[in-house]
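Researcher: Go.
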Amino acid sequence: MAMKMPAPAHTLEEFDVEMSGGIRYCEVIHPVFETACAIALVSSDEYAPFAAVTVASILANADPNHAYDIVVLTNDMLQRNRWRIESLAAEMENASVRVLDISQMIEGFSFYTWAHFTSNTYYRLLTPDVFERYEKVIYVDSDVVVNHDIAELFLVDLTGYYLAAAYDTHVVSYCTQDPPLEQREYNIKTLGMEKPEQYFQAGVSLFNITALHRDFEPGYLIRQGMENQLRWLDQDVLNKLFYGKILRLPNRWNVMVNNLPDNLDEYYLPDELREEYYEARRAPYMVHYVGRAMPCYTTKPDLFEYFWKYARLTPFYEILIQRMAIDYAEKLAQSVRIQLRQELHRETFSEKWRRRIWSFTNRVLPQGSKRRFCVKKLLSVFRKKN
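Model: Structure:
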């Protein structure tokens, strides 16, 4: 068993952001154990329940013969939610969970975003800087559920590589279907990928911290994130910079699902990769609910059983149920509003014919024309006689 390192002393004012206005601030962190599986997450306060599910799933599958050093980075999480997440490892001798504030570290940063993406996605590019005292670190998105001992991933040999990741089966399918989507040309021209179908998903990444510090100056990745405006944001940054230096992980380490389980992009993958993906779905090591496909946010949840299995182990379970109910009610209300709007604007049979007659009349007797004036005058005389 790895020995636990002494924790640095802190005062209450450093921790309690809600009561004192102070922050638990970090720039470079120290390992908790002499040797351990190091894991990094990034989470906002909104995503705190999902980060808790990720952490709970890691701990539920932890091997007692390994140590786990889990760090959640945030810039806005409320203290009570930090405590809830940290409490998940309170009874474990071989695990530590810390929620640390990077708000000062990212002050003044500006990133390109679109759709549902936020600046938080870029903060994974801070991993080599925040974890500079580590040799390697697993980065995991907070919309991922772990269903296997993550220490097995940590032990992957990264010699000769900066990063290990699985293929992004959505993007790869865009490049390999017949005919391919524009994504293929984008990967070639914008990202400089000779083989555009070798595109990796950064939501589960094993960083070679030693190699990155050897070959790049501090802050290099996060600066690249600020300087580039790319389609898939920081994920494109990593694929562009590290092309040829990313070790491919089996797909079971990052099984991607989306909001349309009856129309999966993976259907269009090449035969071998499609077979690997569907086999991975049978017993996934990690399930990744990309694009807000968490089961509480979609009416067609995919692989939902893994999410709820671990959600039950967190203090946020009832909150997630509440969010699901509210989200469903809002979607139902929106559907009713659309239906009512259509009903109110639906023409009756007589209204439709009246509109057609007026349309024909306006063509034959244009507004302001002498012909229209004469017809109106004749109709007026006719009405008087009757």
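Model: The chain is about 40% helix and 10% strand.
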